[in-house]
């Protein structure tokens, strides 16, 4: 390959032009400066990426490439462009959020829920770096890049049943075929069956050459070296086509998906032994307020046990993030500042509860205001309303209400989808179901309401009290009933929207 070819064509992994504006260019320009020698920078980037891939992955990629194109295409990383770019970027920190990402438009006083969600969705971006991990470490991680099948599934035509295989369809009536020697079992190399003969096949076996149809063993009569069965039998009966599930090159995992156990099965079945994922999002949880005492410690008559921190830490664990317990701090602005300073060096996001409004002891919102990166969101939602959102030393802070019921609702509705995007996931929308109401309620206009609810006898019933101090209702419930902003009068049997806790990942 002529050295001049690099400068003339600006080759990138996958054969894209570095300055073409195509999908491959941005990855190849990474790390190049105005005075950089282009050839050297591209070689450096490609070498860095290749060094992070397993050797057998590169060897496998050379199979079936024409001799003339094989050397150049392989050197440039043809057919594994996404993997090369992911490998080269692994460990690199994404750009930080802007300091004004939580700022609401001027003049907004009460923000409808949908506007608040749209604002968050438009301004959130991933903050976690890439990692390449083996499949046994990929469970619950977020895919950082699309993954394609390296091999078809199934790789060869095979039989779906135990029976006898032969070539072609058979019409009505009785059919007798000579039985070929041997058999085909799962894992055997495909052999060859002479025309007009049948062979014993077992479920999952690759079809021998000359076999495209199978009849069930229960429908066959063995007579010495012959088999007899009744037609009609369609060609292709009881067989699976090669690649009928997945073709080589088909996408099997999309970037932004949190990986499940079935995903691991599909990745493994299609030859993927490792996957590019996002590092786990580290989320710190801090409780604020002089009135709080950790459960198990002595409490005076004027104190309460901290219910939010254990609840939020557990929720984050279920969401797939890495929870970090930041403890609790009293109503002391200097002490809170010190805790936030320490937290900014060890987590990606901070969740606080309490101190998020505008009162004398609401130090979270006051400190974010002093930092010049705070938006006090008054959201038209019940329970909830005050939500302090801002940045502290480049780390996003979600200031949740101190009331446990409001803290849970605001976490599920607002913090959960935002955290998902910060972690590299796609914006999640909880799946709700329209079900008959098992309750009566007169609702005023103006705010969206979330009622603690559960399903019984096909109807949604709600907790006896809507008081946000009734923490027992959170445990009693199995989800939330969502009532939109307009005024409404709900009667038993009317359809309402029920969102199970499971739809939020709990």
UniProtKB/TrEMBL annotation:
It catalyses: adenylyl-molybdopterin + molybdate = Mo-molybdopterin + AMP + H(+). InterPro entries: MoaB/Mog-like_dom_sf, MoaB/Mog_dom, MoCF_biosynth_CS, MoeA-like, MoeA_C_domain_IV, MoeA_C_domain_IV_sf, MoeA_linker/N, MoeA_linker/N_sf. Residues 284-421 form the MoaB/Mog domain. Coiled coil: none annotated. The keyword Cell membrane does not apply. Pathway: Cofactor biosynthesis; molybdopterin biosynthesis. CDD domains: MoeA. It comes from the Bacteria. Its cofactor is Mg(2+). Its EC number is 2.10.1.1. Keywords: Magnesium, Metal-binding, Molybdenum, Molybdenum cofactor biosynthesis, Transferase. Catalyzes the insertion of molybdate into adenylated molybdopterin with the concomitant release of AMP. Belongs to the MoeA family. This is Molybdopterin molybdenumtransferase. The gene is glp.
């Amino acid at each position: 390959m002529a050295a001049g070819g690099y400068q003339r064509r600006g080759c990138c992994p996958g054969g894209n032009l570095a300055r073409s504006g195509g999908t491959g260019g941005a990855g190849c320009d990474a790390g190049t400066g105005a005075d950089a020698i282009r050839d050297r920078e591209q070689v450096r980037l490609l070498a860095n990426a290749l060094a992070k891939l397993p050797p057998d992955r590169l060897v496998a990629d050379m199979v079936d490439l024409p001799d003339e194109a094989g050397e150049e295409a392989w050197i440039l990383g043809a057919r594994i462009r996404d993997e090369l770019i992911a490998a080269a970027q692994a460990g690199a920190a994404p750009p930080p959020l802007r300091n004004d990402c939580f700022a609401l438009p001027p003049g907004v006083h009460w923000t409808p829920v949908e506007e608040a969600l749209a604002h968050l969705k438009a301004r959130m971006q991933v903050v976690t770096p890439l990692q390449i991990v083996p499949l046994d470490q990929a469970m619950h991680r977020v895919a950082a890049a699309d993954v394609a099948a390296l091999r078809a599934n199934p790789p060869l035509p095979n039989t779906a049943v135990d029976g006898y295989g032969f070539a072609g369809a058979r019409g009505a009536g009785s059919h007798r075929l000579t039985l070929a020697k041997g058999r085909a079992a799962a894992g055997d190399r495909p052999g060859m069956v002479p025309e007009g003969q049948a062979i014993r096949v077992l479920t999952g076996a690759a079809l021998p050459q000359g076999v495209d149809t199978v009849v069930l063993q229960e429908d066959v009569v063995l007579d010495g070296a012959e088999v007899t069965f009744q037609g009609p039998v369609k060609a292709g009966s009881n067989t699976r086509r090669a690649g009928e599930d997945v073709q080589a090159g088909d996408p099997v995992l999309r970037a932004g998906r949190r990986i499940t156990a079935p995903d691991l099965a599909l990745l493994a079945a299609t030859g993927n032994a490792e996957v590019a994922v996002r590092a786990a999002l580290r989320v710190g949880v801090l409780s604020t307020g002089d009135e709080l005492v950790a459960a198990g410690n002595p409490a005076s008559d004027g104190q309460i046990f901290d219910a939010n921190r254990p609840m939020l830490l557990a929720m984050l664990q279920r969401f797939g993030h890495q929870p970090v317990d930041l403890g609790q701090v009293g109503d002391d602005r200097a002490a809170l500042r010190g805790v936030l300073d320490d937290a900014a060096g060890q987590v990606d996001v901070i969740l606080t509860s309490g101190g998020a409004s505008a009162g004398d002891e609401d130090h979270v919102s006051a400190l974010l205001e002093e930092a010049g990166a705070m938006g006090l969101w008054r959201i038209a939602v019940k329970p909830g309303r005050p939500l302090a959102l801002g940045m502290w030393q480049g780390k996003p802070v979600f200031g949740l209400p101190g009331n446990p019921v409001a803290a849970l609702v605001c976490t599920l509705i607002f913090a959960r989808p935002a955290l998902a995007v910060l972690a590299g996931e796609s914006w999640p929308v909880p799946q709700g179901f329209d079900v008959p109401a098992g309750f009566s309620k007169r609702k005023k206009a103006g705010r969206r309401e979330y009622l603690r609810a559960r399903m019984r006898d096909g109807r949604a019933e709600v907790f006896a009290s809507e008081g946000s101090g009734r923490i027992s209702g959170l445990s009693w419930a199995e989800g939330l009933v969502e009532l939109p902003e307009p005024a409404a009068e709900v009667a038993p049997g009317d359809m309402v929207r029920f969102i199970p806790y499971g739809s939020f990942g709990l």
